[in-house]
Amino acid sequence: MSSRTKSPKARAAELRQRLNEASSAYYVEDEPIMSDAEFDRLYDELLALEEAHPALVTPDSPTQRVGTTPSDRFRKGEHLAPMGSLDKVTSDETLGKFADDVRKRLGTDEEVAYLVEPKIDGLAVSLLYENGIYTRGATRGDGERGEDITPNLRTVRAIPLSLKLQPRERPPSLLEVRGEVFMPLEGFRAFTERQAAEGKRAAPNPRNAAAGSVRQLDPSITANRPLSIWVYGIGQAEGLELQSQSEILRWLRAHGFRTNPYAERLETIEEVGEAARRWETRRAELDYEIDGIVIKVDALDQQRRLGSLHGRPRWARAFKWAPMSAQTKLERIHIRVGRTGALNPWAQLEPVQVGGVTVSSATLHNEDDINRKDIREGDMVIVQRAGDVIPQVVGPVLPHPAGTKPFRMPEKCPLCGVGIVKPEGEVMHRCPNRACPSRGLETLVHWVQAAMDIEGVGEQFVWKLWNEGLLRSMPDLYRLTPEQLQELDGYGEISSRNAVEAIQASKEQPFFRVLLGLNIPKVGWVMARNLAQHFGSVDRLTAATQPGLEEVEGIGPDRAELIAEWFADEENRKLVEELRSLGLQMRAGEAERPVEGPLTGGQYVITGTLDGWSREEAKAALEELGAKVSESVSGKTTGVVAGESPGSKLGKAQKLGVPVLSEDDLRELLSRG
Ligand code: IVH
Q1: pTM over 0.70
Q2: Same domain, residue pair 290 and 363
Q3: Which has more confidence, 247 or 615?
Q4: Is 301 a domain residue?
C-alpha cells in the first residue's frame, strides 16, 4: 500500500515505527540506517499528520521528544523498588574482604561469578515503562522518591520511548529500568564553549553539566544538551523472568536500551581486581567520565540470598579510584614563551593529588581564556585531569580572596624584554623577537621530544644543557660527547653514553621528522609528511617556488608564502646544511613512500551519507588503493563521491566540472582497482 492510500492512523503508526527504529540505530546502536534528510522528511510528514489529527499523537511518538511542556516545579516520583547505593572498595584488600563476605554468606563451595562494568560519573535515573511505553522518569532522590523529570528525559534520544519488541512479543506490564545519564566529553567541550560564547558560566565538569541539564524546568533546554545514557539494571519488572545480571543486560540491549559494551562477566575476584586496575589506566580512552567500576554478583538468586543492609546491597560494590579533580591554591601565573614565540601562561599550584598523581602546575591557554574564567593569582581553583594527561584549571572557587586582581599579560617578553604583540584575529600574544632565547630552547625541546623522539632525552636534559651553555641549536646536540655529559650533575658513565648513543641513533629518523623538527611555521605532522612525499628531498623543497608549494595538498597561498620565506632565510639554510653534514636524513625514504596502487595520483572527496559504509570506511578503502581523500573540492580533485544529502561540496564539484560518483560508481571503482 502506498502512503496515500493508507489511513492517517496506519501511516502515523508506520512513520512512528520507522523513525523510532532509525533513532535507535543512530543513538543506541551507533549504526545509522537512515540519512538525516530522510529522517527529517519522515519526521515532517508525521508532524503534519499529527497536527491535522491531534488524536493520533502517542506518548512514544518521536515528535514528543522536543520538550514542549515546561513545568513550574518538579513533582515527586516514588520508585517502585528503592534505588540503593553502593558501598565502595578502594584496594585489592577491601575487594578481597567483599569476596570473602559473599562466600561466607552463600556457603564456601558455591561458585560465584561477577558482572563488572564501568561506573559512570553521571546522574542516576529510573525509567518506568507501562505496557512497553515510557511513562515516567525520575532522579534517584533519597532512594525512595526522586524528582519527576519525565518530559526532560523524553528529550534524551538514547532513551527509547517504547520497548523494541519482536512480532507478537508482549511487553512486561510494568518495568522500571535503572541507568546513568551523562554528558559525553566531546559534547561537554562543545557545550562549555557554547556557554562561554554566550557569556554564561559553564559547569565545572561533565557530571554537573548532565545533572544541571536534566533538572532544567524547561525541557526544551534539556533537549539541546548533548546527553546520553548507559542503563545497567532493572528495579521492578512484572511479567519478566531473568536469572542473572548478564541476562538483564542482554535483555535490555535487545529491547532498545544502551548498555555498556565493556560489561563483562568474570569468574574470579582476582580477575575483578585486574579489571579495576586495567580500567584505571584505560578510563582516559573513553568518551565519558567514569569514577570506578561496579562489581555485582551475577546470579540474581545469589543476590536475593545476600540481600541488602540500609539500601546497600551486600552483593555489589563500587571500586573507586581517586577523583580526577581537586581544589588547590593557584600561587602564581607564569609565562612560558614557546618555540613559535607564543606566550603560554601556566599556573603554579600548591601541590595536590588528582587521580593518584601529584599536580603542581597546569596550563592556562591564553589571556582571553583566563579572563573569561576569571582566574586570578591567589584564587582557590578547581584542577582537573580530563581525558588527557595535562591538568587544566577549570575555574576559581568564588568568591576571589580579597586583594586579588584580574590577570594581565606582560607588555614585554619575560625572557628578552622585547615588546609583546598580539596579531589581529589571533588569541595568542607573541614575542616578535626571532632571536629570543626561549625560541631556541623550545625548538630544541620539540626536536628531541616530538620530532626525533630521542629515548631518555627530554625537556629536563635540554634545560640543563642549555643552562650549562652546552646547547644552543640542534647541531650542538649531535656534537655532544659522553665526557661532556659526565661532568654534569646526575650523569654517570653509563647514562652519559646512553644519551649520546640515543642522540646519534636519531640521525636515522626519517626525513619528514627532520622537517617537523625544523620549526617551519605551520608545518606540523601532516604537512611535514606531505612536503616530504611531494618533494622527496630537502634540495627540491628549498628550490620550490611559491606556486610549486601550493601544489601540495593542504597548502594555500598563505602557508606557501611562509614556507618559502623560511627556506629563503640564510640562517635557516645554514642550519639545514649543518644538519645534513652531521648525517641527518634529507631525502624521503620508506617512511614517506605513499601507498602505491591503481588509484595513486587520484584525489577524492566524499560528501553526504553513504548507504553501505561509513565515510571512514570509504576513505580507508580508497586510500588502500593509493588514492588521497581530502576534505575540500578544488581543481585538483579527481572525483567527488556523493551520498545522500551531499551539501555544498557537490555544488562546487559541478561548478568546477569535477566528475561526481554515486555510491555504485564508487563500488565499481574499488572493485576495478
Ligand atoms: S549499579 C544498588 N551500575 O553509582 C545500586 N550503578 O552508588 C546499584 N552508577 O548512583 C547500582 N554506573 O547511579 C550501577 N554501571 C553502574 C553504574 C552505577 C554508575 C551509579 C548509580 C548510583 C551509584 C551507586
Answers
A1: no
A2: no
A3: 247
A4: yes
